[in-house]
Amino acid sequence: MIHRKVFFCILLLILPFLVYGQAQEDVTEEKLIELLKDQNVKIEELEKLIHDLKAKIEKAEQEDEMQKLLEEAQKLASQKKETKATLDRKFHSGLRQQSALNPNISLSGDYYFAYGTSESDYNRLPSEESWGTGQMFLREMELGMQSALDPFSRAKVFISFGREGVSLEEGYMQWLNLPLNMNLKMGEFKTQFGKLNRYHDHALPQFERPLVLTNFFGLTSLKGFGVSANFLLPSMTADVNELDLEVVTGGVDHSFTSEGKHNLIYVTHFKNYYDINRSTYFEFGFSGATGHNDQEEMYRSFIGGLDLTLRWAPPDRAKYRGIEWRTEFLYSRRNALDNHINAWGFFSSIQCRLNARWLMSARLDYSQLPWDSDLEEKGGAICFDFWQSEFVFVRFQYTYINRNFDENDSRFIFQTNWAMGPHKHEAY
Fold it and tell me: 253 falls in which pLDDT band (50, 70, 90)?
């Protein structure tokens, strides 16, 4: 494009020739100005034409690019449809899907070394009340299998390999989403008494169960073969209300007999759950259990419980920070030939997440023995857990137990636990 000033200069140079071509016409100043105006109009028209041409060229290039992208997308979509159609034609029989019917299989190992200051057999030897000290132990190898049987039911089986041989820790099936917001369970299972009774050993916040649970139910928890119904109730005073009703056959002779013609144990638990805020929830529950405590089934025991749980975990930092506080109170009334034995106990435990791998926890214990309330234990524990990964953790724990019927004991425990498969160390 020719600049206007340059064009004006050129016009001045050729002006004599224009005047010479018009020799018969008198060139005035007004005609010269009109001639320049005409040239300016023509230049502006040329500039507008060039601008319009450039705009059309750019628009055509953009349309060509969009057309290319559209053609590529249509080509990829057609290839995907052809691949899917080919796969459907080849494997419509479903023979390659048989592996999906296999259950989820897991295996975990729980080892520990314990050193205790007491020399009494009650503390040193493994029993129904103690894991023992002074040796390295295999506490348990657990084989777990879980599967959805169909859209309406599922099954879980856990087999324990321990120092006393092979035993069935749990094995049951569940019917889900039945009328009345009910889930029904049948088989061998740990009852829903309190909070920690359902936990497997590898998922406990400390190495062992609190003293009151061990004295009332033994090391293996309150469990048996039976039926359990869980009801999701309409919200009453809490955000969530649940009711569990269970009947099992069993017992470990601490509070309920394992012999007899019927030896049925009736268990109930009522849970109340509250969301305080996005980071915190509070939960409390009431538990009850009753069953015969003698082989002749003439006398009964009644156990009531109150459990409290408070948990704080910020949603954006739950992997690195968190606090969980648990407390349970248990009261036992045991009928006997000529009297009634009343005993009680409690524990209070707090667990803090220090970072992604380290956790610290502490627990206070007190318990009377359910068959003799004059005998009592009290103590506490503090431990540190290091999670190498979600599959492996190690634990360092110190426990102190004071008894009025045997030697006091200070225990140092080193535990290592590993898991393979989908069922890891989650709270059960």
Answer: confident
